Amino acid sequence: TSIPRITLNNGETIPQLGFGVYQIEPADTRRSTLAALEVGYRHIDTAEMYGNEQGVGEAVRESGLDRTDVFVTSKLNNGFHSRTDALAAFEQTLETLGFDYLDLFLIHWPLPAVGDFVETWKALEEMHASGRVKTIGVSNFQPQHLRRLLDETGTVPAINQIEVHPYLTQDNVRAFNTQHGIVTEAWSPIAQGRVLGDPVITAIAGRLGRSAAQVTLRWHLQRGDIVFPKSVTRSRVEENFALFDFELTADDLAAITALNRDERTGPDPDQFNWIP
Ligand code: NAD
């Protein structure tokens, strides 16, 4: 299978389908990531907050693949928003992964009440200028947070990674991203399993002879978003990768989009100011 790549606003490209490792135990991460690489995934989404960067790095090395053949994302944890802390945390992330460069580094949460994400973004601009990270972006940024970056700094984020799934279609944030050349990554793309019993989705899946997870992930891909479903179960890791030999109709896409109920599985970025 060849996974489509999306071109970012800095000219770099990213595989549209990846493997997420949130809530994979540090001790399991090397094995799970290696399995995903064996299945064919070439894009891994981790974060300092997940505590499992080391296993991701080990798996990439153990896979025998060239480092340049795997796209790896990590994220700056919430306690490290000041310039000095951010630069040090980035170096620590590279060291833990055992890499000499990162493909994508994101500010994990805006923490609006802390109020320092513009300084944090300028630190990411410095990391990018150093050549040690190819692409920089943000996660969980709302339009008003992005607006400040656009107005007060010189770099438009390449990516905004936000919660998106059929029960949270995120029309406003996705439209803002698109208008400004920012690619949307959809986290918790199957809402951690919550959408899989939805009768609209299971009916489409039945008609196509596909699983509800495959239909939901395919819906994201046809909307143009990047996804990285998480699983530690080999058969599901394979199932979530088999998305390129069927297609949803325009009516299927519209029916799934109409399921929106603005229901989050995770925190509201406007209210979330937690520092570990
Ligand atoms: P997800 O929507 O990918 O759901 C994962 C869960 O769904 C699994 O634990 C498993 O129980 C189930 N599942 C997976 N595949 C299945 C299948 N084929 N059939 C049935 N059940 C299946 O949820 P997620 O892990 O929260 O999100 C994916 C990735 O997004 C994470 O691993 C992480 O990389 C990223 N993420 C980012 C943030 C952020 O704040 N930036 C937050 C949450 C997640």
From TrEMBL:
Origin: domain of life: Bacteria
Domain NADP-dependent oxidoreductase per the UniProt entry, residue ranges: 23-260
Pfam hit, one: Aldo_ket_red
InterPro entries the record matches: AKR, Aldo/ket_reductase_CS, NAD(P)_OxRdtase_dom_sf, NADP_OxRdtase_dom
Annotated keywords: NADP, Oxidoreductase
Keyword S-adenosyl-L-methionine among UniProt keywords: no
Name of the protein described by the UniProt record: Aldo/keto reductase
Species of provenance: Cryobacterium sandaracinum
SUPFAM superfamilies per the UniProt record, alphabetical: NAD(P)-linked oxidoreductase
Family designation: Belongs to the aldo/keto reductase family.
